[in-house]
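During the reporting period the student researcher (J.K.) took over the structure-prediction task from the postdoctoral fellow and processed the backlog of single-chain submissions. One of the processed entries is reproduced below for the supervisory committee.
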Amino acid sequence: MATYLITGASRGLGFSLATALAREPASVASLVFLVSRNTSTPQIAELVGQSKGRVIPVQLDPNVPESLRAAVEFVGTRVQGKGLDVLVNNTGVMRFTGGKVGNLTSTNLTEVFHTNVTLTQLVTSAFLPLLRQGSRKIIANISSTVGSITLGPVFSMNSAHAYKISKAAMNMLTMQYAVDYKDEGFTAFALSPGWLRTDLGGPHADLPVEVGTKEVLRYLKEAGPTFNGRFLNIHVPGWEDAPGSNRYDGKDAPW
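J.K. obtained the following structure tokens:
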């Protein structure tokens, strides 16, 4: 039985993933901690009610140290000394610059970088003691292939410059955890879930959120030492050699 904690889980991929985990047997997901700044929404209440106690909302604003400490203490009491098995850093924000990177403002870059990288670091480091107590010790960071330096020319028409920069930085943060904590039995990896039709991805994205959710869940269940330090791309049949910029071939994405 594994325990999962998902940040940014009040909507989009995070909520969809929490919902999918709640449908799994308890032998796969015994507890699912649904983390968000706002956990008082009708859809969260409905999911919690249907889960028979397996989905647990956790109110957290990682910008506030007291909120972060309280969340860690709360999760610690609920896992009862068994630790946390899987941390999914899903929180993310995207802003479009408009035009070339020279138009990127310090405010835009700082805001996006802070949410996508700094808060990922704060949450991961805070929950590290509970992950040490867990049996799986998985850190999964939701990234994007638009943050691939190698694929920079492919996504040159995308003007979400701060988002691309922040995801490249998140990938390096992931690698640092993979290197530093490998000897303790940790597995840290980055995963691109595809361009999904969520509030962040927009209505014209490639894939329904359910498709990305299914693939992310597959990777989370399969994750182990062979995943450590990798940047993974989901697999969607028919998208392996798509003519556009996005290809979902299930292979390691280039850094």
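The committee noted the following: Strands lie at 3-6, 31-36, 55-59, 86-89, 138-142, 187-192, 231-233.
J.K. will present the remaining backlog at the next meeting.
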